[in-house]
């Protein structure tokens, strides 16, 4: 029989432990400021007043009063009692509005950052487009100049080939002219020799005839 109170106490302790782990998160309802008391009744000491939107953890719920834990930001949790009718699992509209306004402010700030980044990207894109256009113009200019150089090189090669051909032709003509000059000199030399030979022969014939005439006079 003595074991039953011990077992009951242990069971209650386990239930309290599990109740703490299963504790429901609730809020003080909209536009209220309620008392946070040391016990479940108005005769108990008021520990503090809790404004609307205060975050609580329910440890035990009754028809009129609920045992709750006040979740302090500093981490020092305090337990007490509040009227059950002022508790709600829904986050108060005022707190939601503040949260939305905070999120909206963050979104507006983020939009501003994104707009600035987009502006910077647009400026970089514009600069890149301008640089690309300059590079295209420079490339077309180089391509045009390359075409001219290629054409000039082709013309130069043609002129060089024509010059080489002309040079060979001139050398050939000079050689032919030298041959003609040599042949002409030989021709004049042969003609002169022939004329001289003819003159000698004529002189011999004439001289012989004259000698015959003289000898016939003296006979």
Report on the structure:
Helix content is 66%, strand content 17%. The protein is an alpha+beta fold and 219 residues long. The chain has a domain at 17-91: SH3 Domains (SH3 type barrels, Roll). The longest helix has 125 residues, at 93-217.
Structural class: alpha+beta
- CATH superfamily descriptor of the domain at 17-91: SH3 Domains
Shape, please?
rod-shaped
Q: Approximately how much beta-strand content do the residues carry? A: 15-25%
Corresponding CATH architecture of the domain at 17-91: Roll
Number of beta-strand segments: 7
Topology, pairings included?
Blueprint: H1 3-21, E1 24-28, E2 33-37, E3 46-51, E4 55-61, E5 65-70, E6 78-83, E7 87-88, H2 93-217
Antiparallel strand pairs: 1-4, 1-7, 2-3, 4-5, 5-6
Q: In brief, what are we looking at here?
A:
Helices cover 66% and strands 17% of the residues.
Features:
rod-shaped, SH3 type barrels, 2 helices, alpha+beta, 66% helix, 219 residues, 5-stranded antiparallel sheet, single chain, two-stranded antiparallel ribbon, disordered N terminus
């Amino acid at each position: 029989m003595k074991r039953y109170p011990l077992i009951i106490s242990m069971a209650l302790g386990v239930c309290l432990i599990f109740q703490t782990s299963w504790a429901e998160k609730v809020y003080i309802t909209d536009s209220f400021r309620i008392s946070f008391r040391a016990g479940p009744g108005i005769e108990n000491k008021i520990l503090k007043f809790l404004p609307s939107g205060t975050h609580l953890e329910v440890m035990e719920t009754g028809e009129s009063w609920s045992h709750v834990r006040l979740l302090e930001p500093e981490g020092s949790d305090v337990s007490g009692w509040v009227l059950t009718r002022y508790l709600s699992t829904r986050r108060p509209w005022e707190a939601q509005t503040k949260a939305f306004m905070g999120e909206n402010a963050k979104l507006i700030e983020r939009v501003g950052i994104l707009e600035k980044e987009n502006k910077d990207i647009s400026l970089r894109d514009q600069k890149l487009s301008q640089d690309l256009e300059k590079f295209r113009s420079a490339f077309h200019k180089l391509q045009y100049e390359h075409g001219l150089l290629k054409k000039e090189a082709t013309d130069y090669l043609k002129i060089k080939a024509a010059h080489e051909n002309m040079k060979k032709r001139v050398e050939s003509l000079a050689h032919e002219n030298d041959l003609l000059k040599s042949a002409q000199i030989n021709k004049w030399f042969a003609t002169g020799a022939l004329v001289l030979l003819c003159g000698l022969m004529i002189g011999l014939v004439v001289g012989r005839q004259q000698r015959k005439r003289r000898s016939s006079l003296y006979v």
